[in-house]
Amino acid sequence: QLQFVESGGGLVQPGGSLRPSCAASGFTLDYYAIGWFRQAPGKEREGVACIGRNGGITNYADSVKGRFTISRDNARNTVYLQMNSLKPEDTDVYYCAATRSSVCGLSREWYAYWGQGTQVTVSS
């Protein structure tokens, strides 16, 4: 059974940094593109960043370009989202997701497997 364990969310002040991680369990990430999504209550789940199977392809939402960096360590079966210069509007539940593909996209319909989410709160 494909599962993710997400961690690394939390409370941070504006301008601060966090690095959530997404560890795969029950399968190897080598064959999967991974996306990070976020969702606030009552809003649509939106794509934030994604990374292709071998890490050579990445895509970012305009709202996070230059501030967020997605990376993967296939040896550790883990994907990371480095979030810098955080803003209050980045406050959301963040989810990782996987799709068996070499390339990636920011549409949630691409992805078949989802983590349980980790809360990120940016507040002073």
SS strand fraction = over 45%
Distance between the termini: 40 Å
Q: Quick one: how many beta strands? A: 11
The coarse overall form would be globular
Given as residue ranges, the uncertain stretches (5+ residues, pLDDT < 50) are: none
Task: Tell me the structural class.
Answer: mainly beta
Query: Helicity range of the residues?
Result: under 10%
Gyration radius, rounded: 13 Å
Main sheet: strands, sense, barrel: 7 strands, mixed
Mean residue pLDDT: 95
The number of helical segments is: 0
Instruction: State the order of secondary-structure elements, H for helix, E for strand.
Output: EEEEEEEEEEE
Verbal overview:
It is a single chain. The protein is an all-beta fold. 0% of the residues lie in helices and 45% in strands. The protein has strands at residues 3-7, 10-12, 21-25, 33-39, 46-51, 58-60, 68-73, 78-83, 92-99, 113-114, 118-122. It is globular. The N and C termini lie far apart (40 Å). The mean pLDDT is 95.
